[in-house]
User: Which sequence fits this backbone?
């Protein structure tokens, strides 16, 4: 039987998607007129099966007039009967009012687990119906501080990009830095005033020193000195009209900021391509003209605005002085990404405080016909091109207030990351690891654990809730932390090492047998990896992957407590199962941006 995916959300990638494709086929065969998209879920109770099809009730409502079916259960039975033959399936049964339960064939599971060792984790990647995705994340503002909010955006955005990259879709990682705001007039003017004259452009790094301190000083003068304020505003006009001296000063200031950002990205191993606000500036007039021509704009108090039905606040796309703002740039960036870069999905990662801004930008794009209206079918993926705002909550300190350092100064992200690493190193030194590993490996491991802990503590949250930053908690050896999970993985590597066997040999000569109950449970959980990633992409939230990894380490522990591995009669099979667990864990870490370690 040739099977085709029957709904846009269904891919052949995950086991769940394959089961859904099977039920999709059954629904097409049994109910050719209605042919609904399959609703498939994992069974809560493994006694009944591994997956269930939930279409019977809603389908019964549609077909009951035809008299052929007495009740939803009869519809369920018809779906069951129409199910194509498949090596995946061990058995099916009907439960309650027509749920069709499906049990996977153990042999098929064993084969799929062995195959991933032979063919690689890429063969388990979910399939997505997109060609190119823009992920706009991190995006700090030049010259202003890069704060913990930007850290969250960096960590969450990177993980989302990693998950989509895993599926093989082209991802453009965009750093939409604020490099074009009015703050530059002030900074440039302050620079010229302080270090004025002809040599204003030489040795700027030295003159500026600490950019955040410099920013504060210039802001102070801006607020206190009306004459300076006036000259700053003229400086913005000069910069934006391309005056070479102002332009040069702007470039230098951006460079200094960039170096600070780079230090954070380098520690976190985050790749980003800078496409700041200034990049889109030349395209703004043409885009605003498009919006004007479509009749979407209104002049209100001299400003150009887009009003929305049933909403009081408009989106202002040109200020009354003719200048452009955040929204002018965002409308233009969206147009550019959809039309020039041919993205069919654009994802914006910022704090929830910007939700309304993005709602308005998305609505304006809909009205302009750039993106389609939302679909009414809740089971289907949104139509393309698709845009999403991924919002997240605040980072709080132990006191429940916005996270700050003791001095109530801003938190420098590099210092924060360095502290995480330092604490890990101390932990390792205390446990005598430095003697075993040597200085270099200890350093490397401390970085992996420290930065990994910061990332994991963030990613494991429901991204919308505020979360409390605590070094003590994120570095705990027990509980749902990166440290615990990295140890769990290192222990699996240790088991394999201890056996003295080569997985590369075993995977060619031996097979996996899921005979013990705990082996079966571990195997089933491993097979769910793909659908967990798929779901995390659909929800644009990596926390499902964290939960999966934590459950996986528990399942592994249960297996290891009851099933002897090394020197047991089942050694080959069990070592292979250990190897699959290690592969899946490593892939999971990779999606979270955490570096796995061979030993810890
Ligand atoms: N620079 C902005 C900020 O710090 C975030 C930019 C997000 N991306 C965008 N396309 N608006 O708040």
Assistant:
């Amino acid at each position: 039987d040739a099977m085709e995916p029957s709904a846009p959300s269904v891919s052949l990638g995950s086991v769940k998607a394959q089961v859904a494709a099977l039920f999709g086929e059954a629904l097409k065969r049994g109910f050719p007129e209605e042919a609904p998209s399959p609703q498939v879920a994992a069974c809560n109770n493994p006694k009944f099966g591994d997956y269930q099809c939930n279409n019977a009730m809603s389908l019964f409502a549609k077909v009951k007039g035809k008299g052929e079916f007495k009740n939803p259960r009869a519809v369920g039975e018809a779906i069951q009967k129409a199910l194509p033959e498949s090596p995946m399936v061990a058995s099916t049964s009907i439960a309650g009012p027509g749920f069709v339960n499906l049990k996977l064939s153990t042999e098929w599971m064993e084969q799929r687990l062995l195959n991933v060792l032979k063919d690689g984790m890429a063969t388990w990647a979910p399939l997505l119906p997109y060609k190119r995705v823009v992920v706009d994340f991190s995006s700090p503002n030049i010259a202003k501080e890069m704060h913990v909010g930007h850290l969250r955006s960096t960590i969450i955005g990177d993980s989302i990009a990693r998950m989509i990259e895993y599926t093989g879709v082209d991802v453009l990682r965009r750093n939409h830095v604020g490099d074009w705001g009015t703050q530059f007039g002030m900074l440039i003017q302050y620079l010229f005033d302080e270090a004025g004259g002809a040599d204003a452009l030489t040795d700027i790094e030295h003159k500026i020193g600490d950019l955040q301190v410099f920013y504060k000083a210039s802001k102070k003068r801006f607020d206190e000195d009306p004459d300076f304020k006036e000259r700053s505003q003229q400086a913005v006009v000069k910069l934006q009209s391309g005056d070479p001296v102002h332009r040069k000063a702007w470039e230098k200031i951006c460079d200094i900021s960039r170096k600070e950002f780079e230090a954070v990205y380098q520690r976190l191993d985050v790749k980003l391509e800078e496409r700041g606000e200034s990049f889109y500036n030349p395209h703004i007039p043409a885009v605003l003209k498009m919006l004007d021509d479509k009749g979407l704009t209104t002049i209100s108090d001299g400003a150009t605005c887009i009003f929305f039905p049933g909403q009081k606040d408009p989106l202002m796309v040109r200020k009354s002085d003719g200048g452009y703002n955040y929204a002018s740039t965002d409308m233009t960036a969206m147009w550019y990404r959809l039309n020039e870069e041919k993205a069919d999905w654009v994802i914006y990662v910022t704090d929830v405080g910007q939700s309304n801004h993005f709602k308005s930008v998305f609505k304006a794009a809909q009205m302009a016909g750039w993106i389609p209206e939302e679909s009414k079918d809740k089971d289907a993926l949104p139509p393309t091109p698709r845009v999403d705002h991924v919002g997240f909550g605040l980072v709080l300190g132990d006191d429940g207030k916005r996270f700050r350092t003791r001095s109530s100064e801003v938190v420098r992200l590099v210092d924060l990351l360095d502290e995480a690493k330092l604490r890990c190193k101390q932990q390792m030194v205390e446990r005598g690891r430095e003697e075993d590993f040597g200085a270099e490996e200890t350093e490397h491991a401390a970085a992996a654990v420290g930065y990994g802990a910061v990332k994991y503590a963030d990613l494991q949250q429901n991204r919308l809730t505020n979360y409390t930053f605590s070094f003590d908690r994120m570095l705990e050896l027990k509980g749902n932390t990166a440290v615990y999970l990295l140890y769990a993985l290192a222990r699996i590597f240790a088991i394999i090492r201890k056996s003295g066997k080569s997985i590369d040999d075993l995977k060619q000569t031996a097979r996996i047998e899921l005979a013990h109950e705990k082996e079966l449970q571990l195997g089933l959980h491993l097979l769910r990896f793909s659908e967990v990633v798929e779901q995390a992409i659909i929800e644009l939230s990596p926390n499902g992957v964290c939960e999966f990894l934590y459950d996986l380490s528990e399942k592994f522990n249960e297996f290891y407590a009851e099933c002897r591995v090394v020197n047991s009669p089942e050694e080959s099979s069990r070592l292979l199962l250990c190897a699959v667990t290690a592969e899946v864990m490593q892939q999971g870490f990779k999606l979270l941006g955490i570096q796995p370690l061979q030993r810890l």
Notes: Residues 136, 139-141, 176, 178, 330, 333, 348, 350 surround arginine (CB under 6 Å). Residues 433-459 form the longest helix (27 residues). Confidence is low (pLDDT under 50) at residues 1-11.
